[in-house]
Inverse folding.
């Protein structure tokens, strides 16, 4: 493909061609000789002579220099992710999603700054506010992602940045990102968005107002539960600072893992479309069950956040939660234990389905659980990551789980 970064091409077409520069998939004699960039395992990069070493430009991406700056395998992945993110000049890779979030925050914040963080942020992001950021003199304050007025009121002269995540972890509230970003920019804040759930395929983060779009590639991009990585994409100003901070922190990613991520990326649109369709079918089925009080799936009509999701998103994924009617924690454990097709484990976005218990009350500080208007007894929730199994089989499995729950509740 001659120009995989042409934004007029469809997303599937761009996913196939992105990052496959012929110089990275072949030799000078035979550019583009193979389909995928080889795995360049390299710490030392060699120079032909001293003149070449002395002439090498410092701090330029995409040129052999030293292993910490990566080699074609990592460059191809970063370039592919940039091609998928409208408005991005570049992408920095990190060894995990958590490293990407912290790397981006450390590029933006200084001692004495205040960070505003959405109350439904991924729990390890919240832990950064209580831990490392606090230790380095940054204060974190949390806000309700559904209350723009409270968000604006929380901005003070020391507020430097806001970390959004939409839909938020566990409870899936959809935040009005364009509105929050406009408010933030009016007060001079930098907007970071954890866009792991939608990826740029479902939500063009920078176009929607984010200055820095962060993703855990561990989830949808990898897609096979066998590698971890993170990314931060941004326009020219922030990309430069992200790179410098990542290099200062010594962040490197392995070429083997970058190769796995590139492999996952090629099929990502297909997997997301299938997982979205299956999740929607399962969410619909769950919403009609007497044991279920509420389904928290923005893609589902009638679910909280659906109107905003329809307005702003062009795709979904397989991750959503549901709240059980009454019951006990032990009954919920029995439900999850009864499932034969769902693994019990963290992470999501893999080809295999997972189920985990959700207990937001233990985590949240600025919003309430159970959700506003909900019966206070309806507080035991389950998060599902729907994979590529046949949805009818997953529904039969959940039916078995709900029967066990009904008997135990
Ligand atoms: C998993 C996850 C992360 C962290 O990614 P890792 O690669 O596991 O470090 C960040 N944000 C969200 C929303 C996640 O679900």
């Amino acid at each position: 493909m001659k120009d995989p970064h042409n934004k007029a091409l469809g997303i599937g077409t761009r996913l196939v061609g992105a990052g496959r520069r012929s110089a990275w998939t072949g030799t000078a004699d035979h550019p583009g000789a193979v389909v995928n960039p080889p795995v360049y395992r390299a710490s030392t990069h060699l120079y032909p002579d001293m003149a070449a070493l002395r002439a090498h430009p410092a701090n330029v991406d995409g040129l052999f220099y030293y292993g910490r700056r990566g080699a074609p395998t990592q460059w191809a992945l970063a370039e592919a992710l940039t091609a998928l993110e409208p408005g991005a000049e570049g992408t920095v890779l990190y060894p995990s999603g958590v490293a990407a979030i912290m790397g981006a925050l450390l590029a933006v914040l200084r001692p004495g700054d205040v960070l505003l963080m959405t109350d439904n942020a991924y729990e390890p992001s919240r832990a950064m506010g209580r831990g490392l950021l606090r230790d380095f003199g940054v204060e974190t304050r949390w806000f309700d992602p559904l209350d723009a007025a409270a968000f604006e009121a929380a901005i003070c002269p020391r507020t430097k940045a806001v970390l959004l995540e939409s839909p938020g972890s566990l409870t899936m509230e959809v935040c009005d990102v364009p509105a929050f970003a406009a408010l933030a920019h009016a007060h001079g804040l930098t907007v970071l968005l954890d866009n792991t759930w939608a990826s740029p395929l479902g939500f063009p983060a920078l176009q929607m107002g984010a200055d820095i779009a962060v993703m855990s590639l561990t989830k949808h991009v990898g897609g096979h539960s066998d590698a971890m990585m993170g990314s931060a994409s941004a326009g020219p100003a922030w990309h430069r600072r992200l790179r410098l901070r990542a290099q200062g922190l010594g962040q490197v990613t392995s070429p083997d893992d970058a190769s796995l991520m590139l492999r996952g990326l090629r099929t990502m649109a297909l997997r997301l479309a299938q997982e979205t369709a299956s999740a929607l079918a399962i969410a619909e089925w769950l919403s009609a069950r007497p044991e279920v009080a509420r389904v928290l799936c923005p893609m589902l009509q009638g679910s909280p956040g659906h109107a905003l999701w329809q307005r702003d998103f062009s795709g979904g994924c397989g991750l959503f939660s549901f709240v059980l009617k009454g019951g006990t924690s032990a009954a919920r454990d029995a439900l999850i234990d009864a499932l034969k097709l769902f693994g019990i484990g963290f992470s999501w976005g893999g080809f295999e389905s997972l189920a985990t218990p959700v207990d937001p009350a233990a985590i949240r500080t600025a919003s309430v659980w159970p959700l506003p208007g909900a019966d206070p007894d309806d507080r035991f929730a389950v998060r599902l990551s729907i994979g590529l199994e046949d949805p009818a089989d997953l529904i039969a499995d959940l039916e078995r789980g709900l029967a066990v729950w009904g008997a135990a509740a």
About this structure: Residues 268-287 form the longest helix (20 residues).
